[in-house]
Amino acid sequence: MESASEAPKQNRPIGLSTGVYNNHSAGGCQTFPGYLLESTMMKNTKRDTILETALRLFSQYGYGNVGIERIISESDVARMTVYKQFGTKDGLINETLELRHRNFMEDLLQSLEPHTRYSDRIRALFEWHQNWFQSPDFHGCMFIKASEEFGAANPQACAIAQEHKLAILALLEAILQEPFGAKAHQQAVLVFICLEGLIVHANMFPGKDLTQDIYQVLQPLLAP
């Protein structure tokens, strides 16, 4: 863990570990295996402010269209603070993606807490995505955009994006494991591709939500 006086490490490893997502519901503690992005940094108010500002700007305007100067200005911090904490713009982008992953998964899992049946959990997942699409903060998927924009230019950002998608797939497979057993992965892939397609469609065609249509088509296919 770095102190405020230490320069940030360049190309630090992605803090990934295999873990479980705990869902404490009326039916007991349900665990969802997946990938957790571990936060290895101390709580730091200025760091948090910079990350939240970068998250908002990158989400709305993209990575290439937002420069460090704008992030510095809107965060109301010194230039040296940004470079001391993150080293480079790529370093800031990578940690912003990690923050987005944590926020995304925490919010998504909270939507599952009231439910114990797999069918109710799948419905809750689609409802969560529909609410996201209809919110003013929806500007498409930061992970898809990162994968498209960076490629070899920032392989760590692409790796974080891939691990985020793997976490969603792992969550779906865990939900579908009990009713489908050996076919859980196949069913999870079906739901996953539908959700990914909905994200892209919602970003391309604002106001033309197809979430409920896709959910209705999937329902008979998800009957064990």
From TrEMBL:
Q: Does the keyword DNA-binding apply?
A: yes
Database matches in Pfam families: TetR_N
- The transmembrane segments are none
Residue range(s) of DNA binding per entry: 67-86
Question: Any keyword ATP-binding?
Answer: no
Instruction: List GO molecular-function terms, semicolon-separated.
Output: DNA binding
Q: Which UniProt keywords apply?
A: DNA-binding, Transcription, Transcription regulation
In what residue span(s) does the HTH tetR-type domain sit?
44-104
User: What is this protein's name?
Assistant: TetR/AcrR family transcriptional regulator
State the organism of origin: Alcaligenes aquatilis
Species classification: Bacteria, Pseudomonadati, Pseudomonadota, Betaproteobacteria, Burkholderiales
